[in-house]
Specification:
Strand content: 5-15%
CATH architecture of the largest domain: Orthogonal Bundle
Number of domains: 2
Number of strands: 10
Radius of gyration: 22 Å
Shape: globular
Length: 371
């Protein structure tokens, strides 16, 4: 029962992650890809199954996952989110394998139900997001260089995510709605949640040394463009978006960064490097918003999304005892990789579900590099 509960938590997280995966913010955090006409394919065909080397670490529905595929999928997960290496401590490879297996089961059920997305559709979808974020081919190529996976692996995995998302939205959740009266009741009963604290919109350039940060400040003093410098010199994942961190309030960044940022006026940048545990920052404040109470109309969509997620979660919990699928994890190989897995019984609803979850940051604190 404990393992089943864990898997359902993964499945619920997967649904939320896949939805976020398709939004602008997802790409704003560094998830980028280039699109090449020669890869386009109008015909919807099964996702190609590459031959991977290494020991078999898991078996699901008669299909094997080798250690090489696990490694590439794990690296791709962090690449898609623009997260640095140290974030891997938040989601170990052992935990990721559990999520990967739930995702593969979901994909199989989606295909069985007749859902598909062509390679060209996947590329077009990503291309639109790429254009919205202003990421160039050169930026993407730089991000891809040195990765453990290639373009074909990346686009196949993204296509798999789209298929799962389409299946979830059109099959499982098609009849789940949130009414206007439910939204209004939630708003009236939770006025304290409608309070928005003071926020600022900032960008930053992250450097490894103080001297490098001082050199950037000298360039800014000479009139160089902040976003251009961030794209060229910043070591953080937001370099691909000109260092843009978006809006944030107090308590969302590490203290040193927060104190420096909130002391700046609009259009000002730090005249001295700001040191944090991640390195040395040069910070630019682009806008400020005073604290306010959201009106019903301003909060409507956020409330709708929250209530919808709650209903979807409740739905999954009610159908959790439907069909069973076993993930026969090969214990010998798992033990050799120091992976402590048992046989896991995964329950999927009769009309099927899921995909791949995000690691969360404890304490509600956003680490600056994640911007």
């Amino acid at each position: 029962m404990k393992n089943m509960t864990v898997v359902w938590i993964v499945i619920i997280g997967i649904i939320i992650a896949v939805a976020a995966f398709l939004t602008y913010n997802y790409f704003y955090c560094g998830s980028y890809i280039c699109f090449m006409d020669e890869y386009s394919n109008e015909i919807k065909t099964p996702i190609e199954q590459d031959v991977f080397s290494g020991e078999v670490v898991a078996v699901y529905n008669g299909k094997e996952i080798a250690s090489e595929e696990l490694d590439k999928s794990y690296d791709l997960f962090f690449f898609f989110r623009g997260l640095p290496e140290n974030y891997k401590a938040l989601l170990t490879k052992t935990s990721f394998l559990n999520q990967m297996l739930a995702e593969r089961l979901s994909y199989d059920k989606a295909v069985e139900a007749g859902y598909d997305v062509s390679t060209k559709e996947a590329e077009n979808n990503l291309n639109e997001m790429l254009e919205l974020s202003g990421v160039t081919q050169e930026m993407f190529n730089e991000q891809m260089s040195g990765q453990s996976f290639d373009y074909n692996f990346l686009i196949n995995e993204y296509r798999r995510q789209l298929i799962i998302t389409k299946y979830i939205n059109e099959s499982l959740f098609s009849e789940i709605i949130v009414s206007d009266s439910e939204i209004e009741n939630f708003y009236n009963e939770n006025k304290n949640m409608m309070e928005v604290p003071e926020q600022i919109k900032a960008s930053h350039i992250l450097l490894e040394t103080e001297d490098e940060a001082k050199d950037i400040i000298s360039k800014l003093d000479a009139g160089d463009d902040f976003a251009t410098l961030a794209g060229e010199f910043s070591t953080g994942p937001t370099s691909v978006s000109g260092g843009d961190l978006g809006y944030f309030g107090r308590g969302m960044m590490v203290k040193e960064f927060e104190d420096a940022a909130f002391n700046l006026e609009i259009g000002e940048y730090t005249k001295e490097p700001v040191q944090t545990q991640f390195g040395y920052h040069v910070i630019l404040v682009e806008d400020k918003q005073a604290a306010k109470t959201l009106s019903l109309e301003e909060a409507r969509e956020n409330i709708r999304n929250q209530l919808l997620t709650e209903k979807q979660t409740e739905f999954l919990e009610t159908v959790g005892d439907s069909n069973k699928f076993e993930l026969n994890l090969k214990q010998k190989e798992i033990e050799e990789k120091n992976m402590d897995f048992d046989l896991i019984a995964v329950n999927l609803p009769r009309r099927q579900n899921d995909s791949a979850t995000d690691p969360g940051l404890s304490g509600g604190q956003t680490m600056v590099e994640a911007g």
